[in-house]
Design brief:
about 250 residues, alpha/beta, Rossmann fold, globular
């Protein structure tokens, strides 16, 4: 009697992840979106989830230090990430387009406050991990490579001096028609850095296996060139490059 050979079906390999972490204003969001476009990957702007939670708290009258209420709110966040006809990101919160609203300095400060709460981070962890879908994901944040995606195949920690980051933000605000104070922006960035580095859960830090890039004296193109060189050395990522080679 011949023995039947049981066919073993291996589960599909998880989608590859590129994790880009760093402090506020380091340029990680711009790099993440450029990489996602080049590779055809999905993109996760994890900071937007904390900004959205801060805005939802404002809408529902929840104090930013009410950890229990924020945890519940985070678990029921009614958010949609869409694209308009021009291919630009559109973020919908409770049926309202809040794409520009969450990018204000006020929302940035509020996001930094709620992001320091352990219960909030736990509530949003699985939501962030759910963005990992084929063909791959570029995730930017502050704990992508250390907590959310510790198995990411490439981890970049992008940093820059507080002064350089404030200068970039200052120019962005002026270009958008907003008034701004450069010294105030420097102080705000340093305050955010202090909160992010010293929070008890998932503090801002480079993963042990991350490649640290200081963009203080580098433009976006120079940073992209360095990251692309790293991608070109990883077969699991290089095959996604549309031109077949790293720039």
């Amino acid at each position: 009697m011949s023995a039947e050979v049981e066919k073993v079906v291996m589960p599909p390999a998880p989608a590859p992840v590129i994790a880009i972490d760093g402090p506020s204003g380091s340029g990680k969001g711009t790099i993440a979106h450029r990489l996602a476009s080049l590779l055809g990957f999905h993109v996760l702007d994890s900071g937007s989830l904390y900004r959205l939670l801060a805005l939802a708290a404002q809408h529902h009258g929840v104090a930013l230090d009410n950890e229990a209420a924020l945890q519940v709110l985070a678990g029921h966040l009614d958010v949609q990430f869409q694209q308009n006809a021009a291919g630009e990101a559109v973020i919908i919160l409770e049926g309202e387009d809040v794409t520009n609203v969450i990018r204000t300095e006020e929302m940035g400060r509020s996001a930094s406050i709620v992001a320091a709460l352990p219960a909030v981070r736990t509530a949003l962890l699985h939501r962030q991990q759910a963005f990992r879908e084929q063909p791959g994901l570029v995730a930017d944040g502050r704990d992508m490579g250390t907590v959310v995606f510790p198995d990411a195949c490439l981890k970049i920690f992008l940093t820059a001096s507080a002064e350089a980051r404030a200068e970039r933000r200052y120019k962005q605000l002026l270009e958008k028609g907003f008034s701004a104070s450069l010294p105030a922006l420097v102080d705000d960035i340093r305050s955010r850095d202090n909160r992010d580095i010293n929070r008890p859960v998932a503090p801002l830090k480079a993963a042990d296996d991350a490649i640290v890039l200081d963009s203080t004296q580098l433009g976006i193109d120079a940073v992209m060139e360095r990251v692309m060189r790293e991608i070109g050395q990883l077969p699991e990522l290089k095959r996604y490059l549309r031109n077949g080679s790293a720039a």
